[in-house]
Design goal:
The complex is a heterodimer of chains A (about 500) and B (about 180).
Chain A: H1 2-14, H2 17-35, H3 41-48, H4 57-82, H5 91-140, H6 144-160, H7 166-181, E1 183-184, E2 191-192, H8 206-224, H9 243-265, H10 272-285, H11 298-321, H12 327-338, H13 347-350, H14 352-383, H15 388-407, H16 411-428, H17 434-456, H18 468-489, H19 494-502
Antiparallel strand pairs in A: 1-2
Helix pairs in contact in A: 1-14, 2-3, 2-4, 2-14, 3-4, 3-8, 3-12, 4-5, 4-14, 5-9, 5-11, 5-14, 6-7, 6-17, 6-18, 7-17, 8-15, 8-16, 9-10, 9-11, 10-11, 12-17
Chain B: H1 14-23, H2 26-45, H3 61-82, H4 103-123, H5 125-139, H6 147-166, H7 174-179
């Protein structure tokens, strides 16, 4: 019950007029940017980060929570009305949502998505309230070897579970780790990969890496292959659902969080897998099997609720362990560090106002999302028609603003461009971007934990595996690594069928 | 390094060889990873260890591991490419992979961005930002000579005012803001 009182205090923080205003601004900005084609939630959050630089941490994170949910909702609007989703979590929304929009049921698809986001988010955030303090309590006792093990798990999971090619995932991770090495070694003050540059000895700011890989990399990549003309977005009216639709959607909405929340909390790449699982589940349970592929509303409602709940699950590991499991969470962690706040088990003790204010504002943000976005949907749909040269020029423009705002130095813009070119090469050759971002942000932390663990054990490598927790985690890591071979030994089953459905 | 052994078809005529290289341009990425690995390793091995070392693991350990891993991945990726593996280019809302890539546009866009990085300290953000937006829009195919610069100027000025004056994020005003 302790967390309930804290949550009430949190609402006290979140419901002041000025903080409601920040939350509303965040939701509107997040949706507006997230709805723009080619901009996924991670890029939206990275591009909007500088907006919060001048605010105090609590206000900044309240606005951030709005941006987060707004960006996610905006992304699903894009995939429903435009069909070609730029971001993995929204892929599933397009599968049924776009056929619905094409057959004139776009308003219902958007409403199913919006309410799904709302319900998934509310249930997910309630689970967050219940679970986060418990996890934080447990996590207080875990030591350096355990942290290192969890981070190794995150590295391996993010390179191996997602994506088509492991070797390319590892290449991306190593690029990220290398970028994370640049700067002064935190323990000894030794300069690494700085080549005598004073500016580099502070390290490359994670925000610059994120904006470079997501925004500049994407803009350059699109510039190489800019589609002329395009399909054009489908116009919609005001979203609504009638009784028949509600009867079909309420169960998928409620089932979503069950699948989404646990997947969000573990380092398995966020919403991609759970939304797909939700899609398959709803398809199996549906009474209208003939409509699937032609616009079954359950196929929008379930996955969208799942995606939203998985975002809440992501926050559990991000806030209590400092472990980002998705690109958005990685950018958010960077934002915390920008304010000198280190998420982890002690966060709930050290910054209760901020954490509970943030969690309360997630609820506020979701209500605002529903209230603002349902009536505004036709406006968001118009944003999809922005001329592409303006859109990508705007991305370059705001990326420059964001990178410059980090420390006010033009040198950062050069670094941004170099990282953008790396992002371009990664897109060209199919290296996933997420492992690189996780590598940059977790690499230095993992190194510190490892060295601390070895310091305690006086250099003996057994110091890394001296707790049952760490051993368990390494066993999971070994299993993930061995999975391709293990799977070959198992009789061929559904996995292939699923892979086919995906296309 | 395996990266260097990329010419098993030496006997091919020049055009055939060129198209082979074009087909396997991913080897360039392997080479880049290998170079990065060598760079990281050299940096790690040339570190002087005068620093008061706390604990048994010094600052060289992790870079050494990362460097070796980079070389390993470069080798494995090379093997994968030579066996016919291919990284799938990323798709997206505005990406048309059926047309050949226009690297000239990319180069010009990067150039425009570089211009902004050079100019921001000299002429201030409102001007350099406007040039960045206009230039980028022009490179990407927008040719409206009245609307484009107007949008660019308005966007840049509004961003400057919002960030600098409302949000408290300082941007350089440059001589223009000195006059106004």
């Amino acid at each position: 019950m302790d967390s309930l009182t804290s949550l009430m205090d949190g609402f006290g923080t979140a419901l002041t007029p000025i903080n409601i205003l920040w939350a509303a601004v965040g939701v509107l900005l997040g949706t507006a940017i997230g709805v723009l084609p080619g901009i996924g939630p991670a890029m939206a959050v990275a591009l909007l980060l500088p907006v919060t630089y001048g605010l105090d941490p609590t206000a900044a994170f309240i606005m951030f929570a709005g941006i987060y949910y707004g960006g996610m909702f905006g992304g699903s609007t894009t995939s429903i009305l435009l069909n070609t989703p730029g971001e993995s979590a929204a892929v599933v929304a397009a599968m049924e949502g776009n056929p619905m929009a094409k057959s004139g049921r776009g308003s219902q698809a958007l409403a199913a998505a919006a309410v799904g986001h709302f319900i998934g988010g509310i249930i997910g955030t309630c689970l967050l309230v219940a679970l986060a303090p418990v996890v934080a309590d447990l996590a207080v006792d875990i030591g350096a070897p355990d942290y290192f093990a969890i981070m190794v798990l995150a590295f391996i999971a993010v390179t191996s579970v997602l994506g088509k090619s492991r070797i390319r995932g590892f290449a991306s991770l190593l690029i990220g780790l290398t970028l994370g090495l640049v700067g002064m070694d935190q323990m000894t003050g030794q300069q690494r990969l700085t080549f005598g540059s004073l500016h580099l000895s502070d390290g490359i700011d994670v925000i610059i890496v994120a904006v470079g890989l997501f925004a500049i990399g994407e803009a350059l990549w699109v510039a190489a292959h800019l589609k002329s003309g395009g399909d054009g977005a489908i116009p919609v009216g005001r979203p609504w659902l009638d009784k028949k639709d509600l009867k079909r959607t309420w169960k998928p909405w409620l089932r979503g969080p069950v699948i989404g929340f646990p997947f969000g909390a573990i380092p398995a790449g966020g919403a991609e897998i759970p939304t797909f699982l939700s899609y398959v589940t709803e398809k199996r349970l549906s009474k209208h099997k003939d409509e699937w592929g032609k616009g079954a509303i359950e196929g929008v409602a379930g996955p969208e609720s799942t995606a939203s709940a998985s975002a809440a699950g992501t926050l559990v590991s991000m806030l209590t362990l400092g472990l980002p499991t998705t690109a958005v969470a990685a950018v958010m962690l960077a934002a915390f560090q920008q304010y000198g706040i280190q998420p982890g088990p002690l966060l709930f003790e050290r910054e209760p106002d901020l954490v509970w204010g943030l969690i309360a504002s997630l609820f506020v943000g979701m209500v605002l999302l529903l209230v603002l976005n349902l009536p505004l949907a036709p406006v968001w749909a118009k944003l999809l028609r922005i001329p592409r040269p303006y859109l990508y020029a705007g991305i370059m423009f705001f990326a420059a603003v964001g990178a410059y705002a980090v420390s006010g130095e033009a040198l950062d813009l050069f670094i941004l461009l170099i990282i953008g070119l790396i992002g371009l090469a990664m897109r060209r050759y199919g290296l996933p971007v997420l492992p690189a971002v996780i590598g940059v942000i977790l690499g230095p932390a993992a190194e510190n934990q490892m060295r601390r663990a070895l310091q305690i054990s006086d250099g003996s490598l057994t110091g890394l595996v001296n707790s049952p927790f760490a051993v368990t985690v390494y066993a999971i890591v070994a299993l993930i690594l061995a999975w391709p071979w293990v799977r070959k030994l198992l009789p061929a089953r559904r996995t292939e069928e699923r892979a086919e459905e995906r296309v | 390094m395996t990266t260097l052994t990329k010419a098993p078809e030496d006997a091919l005529p020049p055009e055939g060889r060129r198209s082979w290289l074009k087909e396997h341009s991913e080897l360039g990425l392997c080479a880049l990873l290998a170079v990065l690995g060598i760079l990281v390793l050299t940096d790690a091995l040339t570190m002087d260890d005068h620093f008061a070392q706390r604990g048994p693991v010094g600052p060289q350990a992790v870079p050494t591991v990362v460097g070796i891993a980079l070389l390993l991945v470069a080798a494995l990726l090379t093997a994968d490419v030579l066996r016919g593996g291919k990284g799938e280019a990323e798709t997206g809302e505005d990406v048309d992979l059926d047309t050949p890539a226009e690297w000239r546009t990319v180069l010009m866009l990067a150039g425009v961005f570089l211009g902004n990085a050079v100019l921001i300290g000299i002429v201030g953000f409102p001007i350099s930002g406007a040039l960045l937006f206009w230039g980028a829009a022009y490179v990407l195919g927008s040719r409206n000579l009245t609307r484009d610069p107007l949008i660019a100027a308005a966007l840049s000025l509004a961003t400057y005012v919002v960030f600098n004056n409302l949000l408290g994020v300082p941007l350089p005003g440059g001589p223009l803001m000195g006059v106004l």
